Amino acid sequence: MRDWSSDVCSSDLDPASALGRRLKQGGGSAAFVEHLARIPQDRIAVLIGKGGETRRMIEEACGAKLEIDSKSGDVMADWGEGEADPVIRMKMPDVIVAIGRGLAPMKAVQLVEDEVSLRMYDIREWVGRQPNQTRRMRSRLIGRNGRIRSLIEEISQCEMAIYGSSVLVIGDEQGLALATPAIEGILRGSEHSTVLHGLEQDRKRQRLRSRSLEAFEERSPDEPSTFEALVPGLAQARRRRERRYKDSQVDPDDEAEVARTLELAEDEEIIYQEE
Predict the structure, then answer these.
(1) Domain 12-85: top CATH class
(2) Given Cys at both, which of 53, 134, 140, 143 links 147, Cβ 3.0 to 4.6 Å?
(3) Can you name the CATH fold of 115-242?
């Protein structure tokens, strides 16, 4: 669930809008420019960084040049004349939105990786639009001295950001599977102890499933098990039994064989009775 918050409306992210896409002419060639997102004014300096360092880091990661409107907060990507990576193009708006919603740029740029995704929640959808309720829920998500947020991040190996009325979390599939139920539990009003206990239990179940998969080893049908190696002739006897069982099966695609199987013997009959 994404929250573009009060200062970011859905039309700002519509690729079909006037700001969405355009071709920039120059020197007989056309460069493709795409609107990514609109960020709050107080996050523009964070996106640019000291001496433009953050901006250059993001440009190197995505392979495009960023155009930032310091008045409106609109961020555009100039993809140049070459073919841009479609996955990076699809995920770049998430990178900009994550920075605009309070995540550190070095963490947000991880979203260009295939396995990292973003989830966003609007606190107002859970507690209403009263500012005091939003502040109360924001405090519950952070916890005293940031302990609740730190525990969720530590256990799930995800990154969280709480900015205004939005809650943002990024991570891989397994991490988000742990973090999102915890965040949603707090948003629903569950006690911290209940949420953290459930988070620990979910992590234990994940580890057990992971260990079970790691412990599973595929063996070829001809490779004997340790027990079969200790008992002479056991492997051969098992294979003979499997062959006899296979030979006794009827091929469902062989109509003649199926018909012979369904034929009744002379001393057999079918009687239909009403119950």
Answers:
(1) alpha beta
(2) 143
(3) Ribosomal Protein S8; Chain: A, domain 1 (3.30.1370)
